[in-house]
Specification:
Blueprint lengths: L2 H11 L1 H5 L9 H18 L5 H16 L6 H7 L2 H7 L10 H8 L10 H24 L1
Helix pairs in contact: 6-8
């Protein structure tokens, strides 16, 4: 792969995003892109397992990002999805699916590993929801 081609991909996807796909056994440009594309295919395989409402919300997030003139990236999709989406996603309703932990790991890569359990994530999101609602109530009073 020519440097110019690789630079174009880095510009479109971001260097930070691609750096996650450098492995100890493969640091070549082709290997990094291959790892990235393989990850996309794995994610696509899980996509149909989401319920229709989740798929619709993800598509709405992608459209909103595009309408704002930004490139649609993994990080922007995660940020655009509502708190309600994530509370629903970590609910017991989705806990029966084996892909849930995979998505949580990839959606929140900076979350400490020990905190990325379903039980802890449910509690954290619920606490955040309560705090957010209290702040909204207080703001409305003043």
């Amino acid at each position: 792969m020519k440097q110019q081609e690789y630079d174009g991909i880095v510009e479109a996807v971001s260097n930070d995003r691609l750096s996650a796909y450098i492995s100890t056994s493969n640091t070549s440009k082709e290997g990094i892109i291959s790892n990235y594309l393989n990850n996309i295919e794995v994610c696509r395989a899980f996509y149909p397992l989401l319920d229709k409402n989740s798929v619709q919300k993800i598509n709405e997030a992608k459209n909103t990002i595009g309408l704002r003139g930004y490139n649609v990236t993994h990080g922007r999709i995660v940020a655009e999805l509502s708190l309600g989406f994530w509370i629903s996603f970590v609910s017991k309703r989705f806990s029966q699916y084996p892909y849930q932990s995979f998505i949580l790991k990839n959606a929140f890569p900076n979350c400490l590993k020990y905190m990325r359990t379903l039980k802890i994530m449910q509690k954290k999101f619920e606490n955040f929801r309560i705090l957010r609602n209290r702040i909204l109530i207080m703001c409305r009073k003043h």
